[in-house]
Amino acid sequence: MRGEDDRLNASDSAYHALRDEILSGVLKPDDRLTEVTLADRLNMSRTPVREAVKRLLIEGFLTRAPGEGLRVTGLEPDEVQQIFQIRLKLESYGARRAAEHATPAEQDELHRLAAVMSGHTPPKTDQDFDTISEANAAFHRTIMLAAKSPRLGAMMSLAINLGLVLRTYRMYDDHDMIRQSRHHHDIAEAISARDPDWAEAAMSSHVLAAAAVARAFKG
Amino acid sequence: MRGEDDRLNASDSAYHALRDEILSGVLKPDDRLTEVTLADRLNMSRTPVREAVKRLLIEGFLTRAPGEGLRVTGLEPDEVQQIFQIRLKLESYGARRAAEHATPAEQDELHRLAAVMSGHTPPKTDQDFDTISEANAAFHRTIMLAAKSPRLGAMMSLAINLGLVLRTYRMYDDHDMIRQSRHHHDIAEAISARDPDWAEAAMSSHVLAAAAVARAFKG
DNA sequence: AGCTACATCAATGTATGCAAAAGAAAAGCC
DNA sequence: GGCTTTTCTTTTGCATACATTGATGTAGCT
User: Fold this and answer.
1) Which of B93, B108, B191, B213 is the most core-located residue (most Cβ within 10 A)?
2) Which long-range contacts (CB under 8 A, 24 or more apart) does B196-200 make?
C-alpha cells in the first residue's frame, strides 16, 4: 500500500499529495493557492489537480475565495474535538451494524488485524509505527465494510479523512497505544459475539479515549 | 432558488440534473451509463459531466464497475432507515451545537421559517407544498450554519443529499405535516433557550418521527 | 478443438487551448 | 481631486483532442 503512487492515476495521487501536505502542515492555513501553481508543483496538468481540488473543497480541507484563489482551511482547536464527535457517532453506528452483519471472514480479519497491532505494541521502531498505523486503518475500514451500508461507507470515508488530522501518532504514549490495542480486541470480540450494544459501546469508548488524548495533547 | 438553472455553471447543473433523475427514478438502479452518453443527453462536454459524476460517486449515488461503466446505486428498503439513522446522529449533534452557538439573527430566522411552515400547514395547493418544502430545507440549512462547524457542514450536506431520497412529501398526510411543523417550533425554541439537551432531543424526535412515517409508507 | 497472442474497440484518464467572469489598475471625465 | 469607465490580468470553467487501459473477439498455431 506504500510507494505505489505510480500505480495510482494522477487525479488520485494529486488528491493524496495535497491532502498530506495540508495535514502535515506543508501547506499552512490561509496559504493562497491556485490550480496552475499546484499543477506545476505536482508536474501534471490542471485537469487531475482540478478534480483533486474539487474533492478537497467538498471535504472542507480547502475553501475557494471568490475571485482570489484557494485557501487552506484552518483547523480551530475546537474542531478537532468536533471531528471526534462526528467519528464517535458514525463509527459507533458502524460497529453496531457490523455486529449485526459481519461475515465470518470479516470477523476473522478483524481479529487478525487486532493481533497484528498488539504484536507491534508498544512500537519500538518506525517500522512498528507504520505497521500499526496501517493495521489500524485496515481495522476501521473492515468494520465499515462489514457494516454493509454503502451510504454509511461514503459518510465514514469522509469522516475518516477528517480523522486523519490526528494521524500524528506522536500524541500517543505507550500506555495510550496499549489501551488502543486492547480496545481493538474488545471491538472484534463484540462483533464476533454479534452483540450490537457491546460493539457500539466498545467503539464509543475507543473513540472517546482517543479524543481525550488529543485534548490533553499540547504541541 | 427556482428556475435559475441558467445561472448555475454547467458542472453544477449536470450534478443536479443527474441527481434529480436518479432520485425521481428516471434513471433506475442498475442502469448502465457512460460519461459520453450523459454528456450528449445534457448537451455539454464530458468535462462538467465528469465532475458531476465524480461527486455522485463520492456520495454513493453512482458506482463505477471496473471495466463496464457507471451504474445507478440501488436503494435497498433497509437503506432508507439507515439514512435516517445517519441523519439522526448528525442533525441532532448539529442542533446541539446550534443551541450553543446560534446568533440572535439565526434564532430569529429559525422562528421565522417555522412560522412560514405552520402558516402553510396543512398544505392545500402545490404552491403550499413548494413553500413548505423550501422552508423546511432552509430551516435545516440554517441550523447547520448556526452549528458553526465547517466540517460538520460538509458531512451534513452529504447526509442531506441522501435525505433527499425522501423528498417525496406524498408520504406525509396532514397529521404528519402538522406534527412536523410543531417539531420545528420546538427545535427553534430549544435553540433560543440555549438548551443543547433539549435541542438535541427535539431534533432526534423530529427525525425519528420522519423515519417512522417512511417505514409505514408503502407505495 | 483448444489455447495463445494479437488486434480492436469502448471507456476512462490526461493535456492543452480558448472563453468567460471577476478584480485591480489606469485613464478619462466631471 | 474624486469618481466613473475601461482595459488588462488573474483565475476558473468548458471543450476537444489525444493517451491509456482493460475487455472482447478472432486468427493462427499446435
Assistant:
1) B191
2) B196/B96, B196/B97, B196/B99, B196/B100, B197/B96, B198/B99, B199/B95, B199/B96, B199/B98, B199/B99, B200/B92, B200/B93, B200/B95, B200/B96, B200/B99
